Amino acid sequence: MRAICLYLHIHQPVRYRQYSIFEVGNNSNYYQDDYNGRQSNQRIFEKVATKSYRPMLNLLEKNMKAHPEFKVSFSITGTWLEQAEAWAPDLIAQIRRMVASGQVEIVGETYYHSLAFFYDRAEFEDQVYMHAHKIHQLFGIAPRAFRNTEFAYNDQLAHWAESQGYEVILAEGWDKILGYRSPNYVYRPSGCQNLKLLLKNYRLSDDIAFRFSDHSWKEWPLTVKKYQNWLDMDCLQGNLINLFMDFETFGEHQWADTGIFDFMDKLINSWLSEYDNKFLTISEAANISEPNGEISMPETVTWADTERDLSAWLSNSMQTSAMQDLYDLRSKIIATNDTRLISDWRYLTTSDHPYSMCTKYWHDGDVHAYFSAYASPYESYMYFMNVLRDIEYRLKKER
Questions:
Q1: Any idea which residues carry the catalytic annotation?
Q2: How far apart, in whole angstroms, are the C-alpha atoms of residue 334 and residue 239?
Q3: Which of 155, 233, 284, 356 would be a feasible disulfide site paired with 380, CB 3.0-4.6 Å?
């Protein structure tokens, strides 16, 4: 058997607006911009729903109905679910229907897409439990697999996941860690007894997620025949191809006019047309074989930027000071039991915020700028700190 494990991450942050220092202490609405009475968050979400979420979900559900053996896995942040409930409940209903078919698995993660694991373990666990509760509430299932925000993985995280009863954890299949080994096998995290580790095949994933529409790429245009040949060749190094990427690859990062939807539709059918080829969920993929050895990652590895470390979020003084100031407030914020204050504080833990403060250059810098809602990293930092100052002001009033 040869299998593709297709996993798609679904996320939208709650973005703060251009919040002025002169509003601190006077206006605690950080998100409304009064554009036709709607939040910029709502406009962005509805745009992406039209370009990406609906057409890709429709494509996947169509193939699920045509091929009962077609499986896919999602991870869905709490911030995305909140916005979908408010502005696109049809998406929730569609995912619920797909989960009920038994062909979709939902992976656990932090509710607010945060890096709390590296700052405050209690906050991290609270967000993971909040996310699991939300997934059970909406879809009636409990996650058996786990991924940390931005695939930020190390051995300590694996030990935590095993202690919580998860069966599978996801990470980047980074060459620096793997060496001569292939990501196309099931592994066991170092020091764990039962937890399985699935590694992203980043080359084949990024061919779709990042290079598909790049006319300067020597392999452009990417055809289904060419890509399936690559899949066939890679299967010589293990029979499990983990294609892990953002859901918004389809329609938002790679626009419809690039042919991305047609490519994916044909790829699913082409792969399944060959005898003994499968699509598996995360949990199914983890059980196709015994682990092919142990993988140790004592230092944190992520799926972002050329370094594959935490530098996308924590490489300059703006990012590190903003996150430290934020988490320093955690115990006092939680102690207030003020649900709105706690929620506003937790929205700031979303990793998109320090990501937009990154000052890297060249290709990585271009990627950061593309995903940012702000004119510059300095503007992002300024508005973030203004919001945090108002949260501190509200905290003092509570006391």
A1: 150
A2: 47
A3: 356
CA-CA distance, 154 to 190, in Å (whole number)? 10
Place of tokens 């980047």: 172
- The encoded tokens of residue 376 equal 């510059």
Non-local (6+) Cβ contacts of 236 within 8 A are: none
83-117 pLDDT per residue, tens: 999 999 999 999 999 999 999 999 999 999 999 99
Please tell me the distance from the alpha carbon of residue 232 to that of residue 328, in angstroms, as a whole number: 50
The model's confidence at residue 364, banded by pLDDT at 50, 70 and 90, is very low
Residue 55, amino acid = P
* Distance (Å, whole) CA 105 – CA 60: 13
Number of H helices, E strands in the chain: 18, 10
**Rounded CA separation 103/376 (Å):** 42
For 40, the token pair is 């910029």
HSE of 144, CA atoms in CB hemisphere, 13 A: 15
For 288, list phi and psi in degrees, rounded to 5.
Answer: -75, -20
Specify burial of residue 216 (Cβ count, 10 A radius: 0-12, 13-18, 19+). Answer: exposed
Average pLDDT, the chain: 94
Q: Is the pLDDT of residue 370 over 60?
A: no
Containing 269, the helix (H) or strand (E) segment is: helix 260-272
Question: If pLDDT is split at 50, 70 and 90, which confidence band does 33 have?
Answer: low
Exposed / middle / buried, residue 105 (Cβ in 10 Å: 0-12, 13-18, 19+): buried
Q: 258, 212 in Cβ contact below 8 A?
A: yes
Task: Measure the CA–CA gap between 202 and 173, rounded to whole angstroms.
Answer: 6
φ/ψ of 171, rounded to 5, equals -155, 170
Lowest mean pLDDT of 10-24, 31-45, 188-202, 318-332, name the range: 31-45
Residue-wise pLDDT tens digits, 45-62: 999 999 999 999 999 999
SS3 of 164, please? coil
